[in-house]
Amino acid sequence: MRGTAVPATTTGALGSTDPADFFGELYISFWIPTAVLTAALVIKLPSIVKLWRDSLLRAVGGLLLLAACVFVFAVPSVIAWTNRVVGVPNVAAPWVYSLITAFCACCLLLIVAWRNGPAARSPATRRLMRWVVGVYAGVIVVLWVLFALADVPRERLRDLDTYYATTPFMREEILLYLLAHTAACLITYRLIRNWARADGLDLWLRGGLKALGLGCVLNLVFDASKFTAVVARWTGHDLDWLSTHVAPPVVALAAIFIAVGFILPHGGQYLQDRWRVRAGLRRLRPLYLLIRTVDGSRVPFALRATPELRLTRRETFIRDGLLRLTRHLDKDLRRLAYDAALDLGHTPGRAKALAAAVTIQDAVATRRRSPDSGPAVTLTTDPLATGPLTTAPRTTGPLTAGPLTAGPLTTGPLVFPGFAAGSGEFMVSSDFTDLLQDIEAVSLVLREPVEIEAVRALAVASRTDSRTESSVPVHE
């Protein structure tokens, strides 16, 4: 039996001159969650296709797809179109109910996959998943049987649940889909709540679980609104506004939280990784610019290079530049600069970075003045090498007034990267290997030229005093 004609204001006449009517007919509360759910599905789709045998990912994909379909086919204008194409009044009702029931089945399958792990293939797990599929497939079949037995000749686009709440067979159909949806949401919420309280979850996964939990709670509010309106009809009261005006926006908000719950762990971690890489590039920029002044070279530009590749290339460029500066690095200056930084009140870690910055700046200036001067210093790979350290004469750098002379210098065991074991005391390394490990800390202190110059000045003063004392003759 065909339904009666529906007024244009109900089906959606976009020719209306009233802006409120125009935007109302766009059904924003339906299309916004559809767009969010579709975006979540697009983000997850590559992983689903690549790992198709993973039951967890298949359940996530099915859940997002079905949730988006529910909102598409629940739009009043789409309901009218479905009824018109099929030629049966209100045939869109069992179709939408079937989509909601299938969505519930995907929620429960997702629970099984989460509880037993993506790789679990035990007979008990397979039986449980078959049981879920069988039960909800049976519910869908019963929904269509009940619709075939019901007498629903008048087309209802917005209030079918309450309008036919007392109609035989349709009454049972409405009750059945609400019970199936409520049971799935309750079980899903319980699992998510327990999982979100577990230890060892990262920030993004915990946030995604909380968003999913909130989506389940809002779905339960939707069910409560529908149940209340339907029961009110059974008792002769009129609370249709709960079903018509409260339930749709609540379930739309629930869908948004569910989509966010699936997007957040993946998208949040992706954005965090991108931010970490770009922050690393910014932190290394001062030292990168300084090393570029050694011979004017730079990291080759590649248009398609990923941020991770750019960071790796910048780190490699800096370390290669430090290797070229090896013969110009002055370990005496570095030791004096470290002591000077400690005297100025800096912590050992920052003092070490400041001393390295002073030493590298001195080596860059020396290389520009005399590229081939200075003794070669071997970079060894053994951080625990021990033995006496000797200081060979080096060409005058920007911090020296004349050539330096020093006798043999002996120290205790060297502990990489430049601190004495157990004491936290900085020790001068003969191979400068630790400079290659601390490039980020050195690059950060290069942004503080005032502090570097203060350390440099005090180191120069200490070197001058030491040279003066060594030049005074000792009388027996």
What's the topology here?
Layout: H1 8-11, H2 19-25, H3 28-50, H4 55-73, H5 76-86, H6 92-116, H7 123-149, H8 160-163, H9 170-196, H10 203-234, H11 240-295, H12 307-324, H13 331-343, H14 348-369, H15 433-437, H16 439-445, H17 449-471
Helix pairs in contact: 3-4, 3-11, 4-6, 4-11, 6-7, 6-9, 7-9, 9-10, 10-11, 11-12, 11-14, 11-16, 13-14, 13-17, 14-16, 14-17
Could you characterize what this model shows?
By secondary structure, the chain is mainly α. The protein is 68% helix and 0% strand. It is rod-shaped, with a radius of gyration of 36 Å.
Low-confidence spans: pLDDT under 50, at least 5 residues? Answer: 1-26, 374-426
Q: Strand-residue fraction?
A: under 5%
**What is the count of DSSP helices, taking H or I runs of 4+ residues?**
17
* Number of DSSP-assigned strands: 0
Helix and strand sequence: HHHHHHHHHHHHHHHHH
Q: Whole-number average pLDDT? A: 77
Q: Considering DSSP H and I runs of 4 or more, what fraction of the residues is helical? A: 55-70%
Shape: rod-shaped
User: Which structural class do you get from the secondary structure elements?
Assistant: mainly alpha
Q: Alpha-carbon distance between the termini?
A: 126 Å
Tell me about the biggest sheet?
none
Radius of gyration: 36 Å
